[in-house]
Amino acid sequence: MWLRTASQDDLETISAMLSETWHATYDNIYGKEKVAELTEAWHSVPALKQRLSKPRSEFIVCDDGAEITGMAFVSQIDSETSMLHQLYVRPSAQGQGVGKKLLIEMEACFPDVRKIRLEVEEANDRAIAFYEREGFKRVDTTPDCGVKGSGIPAVIMEKVIW
To answer: At how many degrees (to 10) do helices 11-30 and 45-52 cross?
Structure first.
């Protein structure tokens, strides 16, 4: 498996992977309808396409030659901080080191920043445990993960890189 920059040709596959991953993770928390609504808004091909050209950002995929097993998107938000907006691994590939590889790459994308921040849904215990194992600390909470008005409560976590 290798990491590479996402391309426009990948967007349909990434969108389908995100839908699969979100349903596996959040259907029991929010219900299938709400997850489908959020996935359509946040993970559609047009929504993903906007990330490809965002300044000061990186959008990568983990590709094993047969399928895309994970993706991550990070952007630099100020002179000392980058924001990990997305890091998702296909359910069938979880627990195989894909997330860790993606995270290491995301941390290296902006060598001048000293910390990386992320938001994770507060009921996603597995993701929170992953980030804590990787050195992230809880620093705050938000009632609106991802976008204002989402209504998804989240933990804000940070990791000092250097």
So the answer is: 120
Q: Per the confidence metrics, is the pTM higher than 0.70? A: yes
| Residue of higher predicted confidence among 88 and 145 | 88
Domain, as residue range, for 10: 2-160
CATH of residue 42: 3.40.630.30
Domain count, the chain: 1
Of 68, 81, 65, 73, nearest in space to 49 by CA: 73
